[in-house]
Amino acid sequence: MKNKPVIILGFFMLLAIAASIIVYSGTEDIQEEQEFKVTRNLMNTPITITVIHTDETYAYESIERAFDKIENIETTMSHFKNNSEVSRLNQEGVIHDADPELVYVIETSIHYSELSDGAFDITIKPVLDLWESKFKPGGTFEPPTPEEINNTLELVDYSSIEIEGNSIKINPAMSIVLGGIAKGYAVDMAIESLKNDGIENAFVNAGGDGKYIGLNSRQSPWKVGLQNPDREQEFITIINIHDMSVATSGNYERYFSDDARVSHIADPRTGYPSEELISATVIAEDAISADSLAIAVFVMGKEDGLKMIEQLEKTECLIITDDKQIVRSSGFSNYEAS
User: Fold this and answer.
1) Which residues form the domain of 200?
2) Is residue 15 in some structural domain?
3) Which residues pair with 222 in a beta bridge?
4) At a CB cut-off of 8 Å and minimum separation 6, what does 70 contact?
5) In this structure, what CATH number is given to the domain that contains residue 252?
6) What does each C-alpha distance from 12 to 7, 19, 24, 253 come to in angstroms?
7) Which UniProt keywords apply (predicted)?
8) What is the distance between the alpha carbons of residues 90 and 207, in angstroms, rounded to a whole number?
């Protein structure tokens, strides 16, 4: 009789173990990781957020929070929105209560302006407006005259931007455009939002500016195809990306008009469209850097652009010249799929 309690206890222990195995097995099936994706048009471009997770509801909630972050940045930094802080700055020449994020983005833009000897410059908006006015309905459909270019260039000067605390000031008649840097920043902040939600595997792509964290659904690095300018459905190369960012600037997707075929990326130093390259793709740790540097390289051209990239750590680029040569920085091939 003394052994019976032990036998009974052992019986119940076996039942508990069996139950735990059943429960564990069932949970394992439920927790299989899947890919969840949402695409929306924000910041004047399609933005896709993809998340790898076990819980569909939580994945979509996290995606929604990331999109909320992007929308907030657009509300602050878009020059297309009349009530944005950037529009206020352009209209009034000064803003005293600027969002700290706007201050950060403008300070970062100045850094890349200095790094690129002015090839990247957010005060280029008057030049872009001048070219656009020539090739929109009612325009002359002729390039601006040298005199018009020279007069407008007097309004382009990143070094004249004044920042003190949360106050930002630009000279009268000047205006800024953050399209070459705000997208990258928004991608970074969307990724940070996902990370704060515990998401480890995901990517955010905003019209060619992307940041990729963790691994894809096959537990391998994310694969990014670089488009062939001549054939839309073909790739020049495929790169493996893990916890890095990629951005491409080029003149084969966006033009002021289909007839004019004028590049939307102008050189802030000359006032004329940049035409030496077809595209410049940059790999960097964060999207704000990749975004800014891709434009800088595109404007600087092959030799100066490569020279700048080779001086930066954890930064690589691939350039397609106007005569369709493909030029890589020294470490770019390390990212290419074999």
Assistant:
1) 36-335
2) no
3) 241
4) 42, 43, 47, 186, 189, 190, 206
5) 3.10.520.10
6) 9, 10, 18, 69
7) FAD, Flavoprotein, Lipoprotein, Magnesium, Metal-binding, Transferase
8) 25
- pLDDT tens string 58-87: 999 999 999 999 999 999 999 999 999 999
* CA neighbours closer than 13 Å in the CB half-sphere of residue 96: 0
Separation between Cα atoms, residue 228 and residue 323, nearest integer Å: 13
Nearest to 49 by CA among 34, 39, 58: 39
Q: Distance between alpha carbon 268 and the CA centroid of its chain, in Å? A: 21
In a domain, 138, yes or no: yes
What pLDDT is attached to residue 176?
A: 98
How many domains is the chain partitioned into structurally?
1
**Angle formed at CA 113 by CA 167 and CA 77, multiple of 5 degrees:** 45
Q: How many residues does the chain have?
A: 338
DSSP state letters, 174-188: -----TTTHHHHHHH
CA distance 233 to 120: 30
Task: Report whether 77 contacts 178 (CB < 8 A).
Answer: yes
What are the pLDDT digits (tens) for 268-324?
A: 999 999 989 999 999 999 999 999 999 999 999 999 999 999 999 999 999 999 999
- Asked whether residue 229 is assigned to any structural domain, the reply reads yes
Contacts of 288 (CB under 8 A, 6+ apart): 105, 108, 181, 184, 185, 187, 188
14 inside domain = no
C-alpha pair distances (Å), 22 with each of 44, 151, 336: 51, 77, 44
Contacts of 83 by beta carbon, 8 Å cutoff, 6+ apart: none
